[in-house]
Design a protein that fits this description.
Two copies of one chain form a homodimer.
Chain A: E1 8-9, E2 19-21, H1 54-61, E3 67-69, H2 72-81, E4 86-88, H3 90-96, E5 101-106, H4 117-129, E6 134-139, H5 143-155, E7 159-164, H6 165-170, H7 172-180, E8 184-188, H8 194-202, H9 210-222, E9 227-229, H10 236-256, E10 262-266, H11 271-285, E11 293-299, H12 304-307, E12 309-314, E13 323-328, H13 350-357, E14 362-366, H14 368-382, H15 388-407, E15 412-417, H16 425-433, H17 443-450
C-alpha cells in the first residue's frame, strides 16, 4: 500500500541541513572563470575583496569544497522560518485530472515572501562577522531587498537598496516593508551615483533594469568606506546558500519514499532553480539517477536560456563588474516595462548556464498571460497566491502534468514555489481585467542587446 | 534538563484535531440568548434559517454538544494550510531581556493572511452542503472577505462582499486578492441595498463600519433566493470553528511539556480570542488550571470591553439582526477614520462578553501608535510583518513579559498572532513617517453610541 503523503510535510528542526552543498564540487566540467574586464584574465579571489566580503569572495571562487558548514548564527535565524514545507498539490492534481504526483517546495512563508532570505541571512552575517559597517544592494521585484532588509535589521547593519524604477512604481508598498526593517530604498537609475546619472542622461525615460541597479549599488559600495555590495542571485555563493531548498526537499522526499522524475523551477538569475536542483543534479552527475529531468522556466519577454547567447558578459548594465560566461541577452537588454512577471535579469547563473550548455537541463519560456492563468488556477486549488516569478514554475509543472495525462504516466514532479504575490496585485488586477499584454522581443530587439556584449570571446 | 523547544513547532497531519470544541458546554452560566427585536423573546433556531444555513443555525444555538465533528471536506481544506505553527519567540524574549517564555500561535501562513479561513471553510462547506447557490458577507480590514472568497472558490459558490469603505480605500489591493478568488467586492455603505441608501442619506460622508456592512449583507441575503449571509466573527458558530486554534496550541504545548500562565489575544469581534482560549478556559472552568489568566487586547479607539456596556444590542448598524447581550459601544458607534489598527467592531462575542462579565477574563486597551511600535519591534526580531490587529496581542504579550522582567518570574505567555500585515503598508508608512495619530473617544463620543442602544434591558 502506498504511504499516506500529507498535504504539507515539515522536517523537524533537528532534521534541518547543517551544511550547504556546493554543486561545483561534483561538476565534471567547471563553469568558465570570472574575467577581469580590464586585463581579460581570470579574476583572483583577492580582486573580489573590494566588492564582496572575504568569506563570500572565497565561496564565490571555491569549486572544491563539497559541503560548507552553515554558521551557527545563520542557522539560528533560519530556524525562525525554516524548514519550509514540502507540499503535495492534491487539489491541483485533481483539477488537472493528471496521474502525476505534483510536489512543491514552498519558500514564501516568511515576510520577505520568498526564498531570497536564505542567502540574505548568510551574506549579512558574513559582512557583520568581518566588521563591515554598511551594505548596498539592488532589488527588482523587491523580494531580495525585503529579505536583505530583514537580515540586516537582525544583524544590525545599515543598508542602501537600489530598486528598479518600474518595480518601485508598480509596487509602492514594497518600499514600506523594507522601511519597516530600516532599509533605505532608492529608485534606480538615480542621481546618487555616476553610473546612474550617465544612464539617465543616455535614456531619460528608462524604467530601469536589474543590471543598472547593480551598477549603482556596486559603485556606492566601492566608494563608501567599510561597505560592501551583496547580490541576491546569479552568483555561485548565492546558489550555495540556496542549496538549503534542495537539501530540505530531498530529505523530505526521502522520508516520504519519493524521488522526482522532473524538477521544475523558475529562472531569473537562477538563485532558486540552482538551489532547488543542486542535490538532485548531484545524483544525475554521479550516475545514481541519470534520468531525472530538470526544466528551467523563463518569461518569453526575457528569454536568456531559450534565446540568449552563451558568452562572456558583464553582470550589470554599467559594465563595472567582472565578466561572467553565461547565457545572456546582453547587459544592454531591458525587458518591456509592460512585463509584470518578474525574472527581468539579462543573464543567468554561470553554474546553470554551464549545465544547460552541457545538456543536463532543459528550458522553456512562457508569455505572461499564460503564467498568470496558471497562477490563478493554482491559487484557487491550493489557497496560496503565488508570486508571478514563482508562477512560471507552476505553469511549467502544469504542462508536465498535462503531458502525463496524455501518456498516462504517474510521474513525480517537484517544482519550486519561490514566493507569494501579495505585492503584485496591480499585475493580477490587469490580468483579471484583461488588460495585460504579452510581449515577445523580436530578433531585432534581441540583436540590440547582443550588440552590447563585450568583444572578448 | 529542560526540553529543547524548537523555534517553530508543527503538529503532524495525523495529530490535527478532528473535532471542534464548544466552550458553552462547559460554562456554568450560559451567555444570554439572542432576542427577536420585534417580540423581545428568545430567538428559536428555525427563526435563524432565513439568515443562516441550517447546520450553522444549529451550531449557533447548540450550547450542549461539547465536541463537534469537523466534516471530512472541511478537514481536507484545512490540511492545505494547517496545522499552523506554534512558535517560540526566542529573539523577542532576548530583545526584551525577560525571563518569560513567549509562545505565539501563528495563523497568518495562508493567502487570506489570517485565522479567518478556519471559519470561512466551515461556513462555505455547510452552505454548499445545503444546496445554497450564493452567499453574502461583510469585511472590514479585508481578511475575512479574502478568506471567504478562497473558501467559496474552493467549493464553487458565488459571493458578494460588502467591504467597509475606509478599508476599501486604504487597502486597494485587498480587493484584487478577493477578485482572484472570484469574490464580488462592493464598498459599504452602497446604493445596492435599502439600508445602505438610508445610511448614506443620513450621513453622506461616512467611512462605513462593520455594523453597517453587516446590515447590507444581511439585506442582500434575505432578499436573494437560495442565498444566505455568513459572518466572520462575534457568533457562537465562529468561535466553535476557531477553537481549532486553541486545540492545536494546547496539543502542541502538551507535547513540548508546556502550559500557558497567561493567554493573550486581540479582540475585535472575538473570533480569534475565543478560539485561542477555548480549551485553556475549559481547564480554568473545571478547576484543572484555576490560575490561568486570559487577557483581551483591544484598540483604545474602539474599546468595547474596557469602556463599553454589557447590554442587549443589535449586531449591525441597520438594526435588522437579532439582539445579542454583549459588551458594546452601541451599534451607532463608528470609530475614527484615522484608526488604522483594525478591530473596529462596536460589539463583542456574547460568549466572551459573558466570561469577561463573570470575571474569567481581563481586558486592556492600547493606542495605535503603541501597537505599531510593538509591531515593528516584533517584525525585526521574528521576521514576520504582523497585521495591525494581531499587533494588539503582541503589545499585550510584550507588556506581560516586561512585568515578568520586573518581578523575575519565568512565566509562560501564549499569544495569538492572527495574521500578516502585507495589506496594511499604508498604515505602517504613516507610523514610520510619524504622521499616525492616536484617537481616544471622549465620554461624549461614547454617549452618542450608547444612545443608539435599544431600550430593552
Amino acid at each position: 500500500m502506498e504511504k499516506k503523503i500529507p498535504h504539507r510535510f515539515y522536517l523537524t528542526e533537528e532534521q534541518m541541513p547543517k551544511q550547504w552543498y556546493n554543486l561545483r564540487a561534483d561538476m565534471k566540467e567547471q563553469p568558465e572563470p570570472l574575467l577581469n574586464p580590464g586585463t581579460g584574465k581570470p579574476v583572483k579571489e583577492e580582486e573580489l575583496y573590494p566588492i564582496f566580503c572575504e568569506k563570500l569572495a572565497h565561496q564565490e571562487m571555491d569549486s572544491k569544497t563539497r559541503y560548507v558548514d552553515i554558521p551557527e548564527e545563520v542557522l539560528e535565524m533560519y530556524k525562525i522560518y525554516r524548514p519550509s514545507p514540502l507540499c503535495r498539490a492534491y487539489n491541483l492534481e485533481k483539477a488537472l485530472g493528471t496521474p502525476a504526483k505534483i510536489y512543491y517546495k514552498f519558500e514564501g512563508n516568511n515576510t520577505s515572501g520568498s526564498h531570497k532570505l536564505n542567502s540574505a541571512i548568510a551574506q549579512a552575517y558574513y559582512a557583520k562577522d568581518q566588521g563591515l559597517t554598511s551594505l548596498t544592494t539592488e532589488t527588482g521585484a523587491g523580494q531580495w531587498g525585503t529579505a536583505l532588509s530583514e537580515a540586516c535589521a537582525y544583524f544590525g547593519l545599515p543598508l542602501d537598496i537600489f530598486m528598479v524604477k518600474v518595480s518601485y512604481e508598480q509596487k509602492p508598498f514594497r518600499k514600506a516593508v523594507m522601511q519597516v526593517f530600516d532599509g533605505n530604498v532608492i529608485p534606480s537609475p538615480s542621481n546618487t551615483t555616476n553610473v546612474g546619472k550617465q544612464i539617465l542622461a543616455d535614456n531619460p525615460n528608462t524604467t530601469g533594469s536589474l543590471g543598472c541597479a547593480i551598477s549603482e549599488a556596486v559603485e556606492k559600495a566601492v566608494s563608501t568606506p567599510n561597505c560592501r555590495y551583496v547580490l541576491g542571485s546569479v552568483l555561485n555563493q548565492v546558489l550555495l546558500h540556496q542549496s538549503i531548498i534542495g537539501l530540505e526537499s530531498k530529505k523530505a522526499m526521502e522520508i516520504l519514499g519519493e524521488y522526482p522524475d522532473v524538477v521544475v523551477g523558475c529562472a531569473g538569475g537562477g538563485s532558486n532553480l540552482g538551489g532547488l536542483i543542486a542535490p538532485f543534479m548531484k545524483d544525475k552527475l554521479d550516475g545514481t539517477k541519470p534520468n531525472t529531468r530538470f526544466v528551467a522556466v523563463e518569461p518569453a519577454s526575457c528569454p536568456s536560456f531559450t534565446r540568449g547567447k552563451y558568452a562572456y558578459d558583464f553582470c550589470d548594465t554599467g559594465k563595472i563588474t567582472p565578466l561572467a560566461k553565461m547565457y545572456t541577452l546582453g547587459s544592454g537588454f531591458i525587458p518591456s516595462a509592460n512585463h509584470a512577471g518578474g525574472l527581468r535579469y539579462h543573464g543567468m547563473s554561470p553554474i546553470l548556464s554551464k549545465l544547460y550548455h552541457d545538456g543536463y537541463m532543459e528550458a522553456v519560456s512562457y508569455e505572461q498571460t499564460k503564467v498568470f492563468e496558471a497562477a490563478v488556477q493554482f491559487a484557487k486549488c491550493e489557497t496560496i497566491l503565488p508570486a508571478p516569478e514563482s508562477s512560471h514554475a507552476i505553469k511549467g509543472a502544469i504542462d508536465e502534468a498535462l503531458k502525463c495525462k496524455e501518456t498516462g504516466e504517474a510521474k513525480t514532479i517537484l517544482f519550486g514555489l519561490t514566493g507569494t504575490g501579495y505585492f503584485d496585485m496591480k499585475a493580477y488586477s490587469e490580468y483579471l481585467a484583461g488588460t495585460m499584454n504579452d510581449y515577445i522581443p523580436t530578433d531585432e530587439d534581441l540583436q540590440k542587446g547582443f550588440d552590447s556584449l563585450p568583444k572578448i570571446d
